[in-house]
Design brief:
This is Reverse transcriptase. The chain has about 210 residues and is an alpha+beta fold. It contains 8 helices and 5 strands. About 65% of the residues lie in helices and about 15% in strands. The N and C termini lie far apart (about 135 Å).
Length: about 210
């Protein structure tokens, strides 16, 4: 034991001679225990390498998660921005659409000539000599708005003024067709001279 402690642990013989057997036994047991628990440096190197690889993988995963979170956050932000822009566009479209609603009409006279004056919600107005001119620039919503105004004003009665009567009759034939309407009766005794489709509003026009 003394030789082992001298050679392996660096103790001097004179120091060991001054100690009792039990003390030397205890010192030897501690030294020998370290030998028994010694691990090969190759094993320690492999463990260190595995730990390093595990740390690298964890760091990569953390970086990937951070990158994915950044991407997801950008996608969410872009989606919210797109939704907000679409909402603003819809709101602007609704405002513009309401501004162009037909809110009234009247007969505008200039000398001996009479015109239909169509008035919109934004205060702008346009005059038309005949109904077919309206069909060239109106869409179906315009016709529906105008029909509602005419129906609200006259109901089941018929206007007295010639211009109003012509407009009322044309709109009534369009939205409330009936077999007794004059246009159908005329077909029995007259030929159709012209047929035309107005693309802006999808209305068919017949000239007898």
């Amino acid at each position: 034991m003394c030789t082992y402690l001298k050679n392996m642990e660096g103790y001097k013989l004179k120091d060991l001679k001054s100690k009792g057997f039990d003390s030397i036994q205890e010192m030897f047991d501690r030294a020998f225990k370290r030998v028994n628990t010694f691990e090969d440096f190759r094993t320690m190197t492999r463990i260190d390498e595995e730990e390093r690889i595990a740390r690298d993988e964890e760091e990569k995963n953390d970086e990937a998660n951070i990158a994915w979170d950044d991407i997801q956050a950008k996608v969410d932000a872009d989606y919210q921005l797109a939704e907000r822009l679409q909402a603003e566009e819809r709101e602007q479209f609704t405002i513009e659409q309401k501004a162009t609603l037909i809110v009234d009409w009247k007969i505008y006279k200039e000398g001996k000539k009479s015109y239909y004056q169509i008035i919109r919600a934004d205060g702008k107005s346009q005059i038309y000599r005949v109904f077919s001119q309206m069909l060239k620039s109106f869409d179906m919503e315009d016709l529906e708005d105008l029909y509602k105004l005419i129906k609200a004003k006259y109901g089941s009665t018929r206007p007295v003024e010639d211009m109003d009567y012509l407009l009322w009759n044309d709109m009534k034939i369009m939205f409330e067709p009936h077999v007794e309407d004059e246009i159908w009766k005329l077909q029995q005794g007259y030929k159709v001279l012209e047929w035309k489709l107005y693309d802006s509003c999808g209305v068919h026009s017949l000239r007898m």
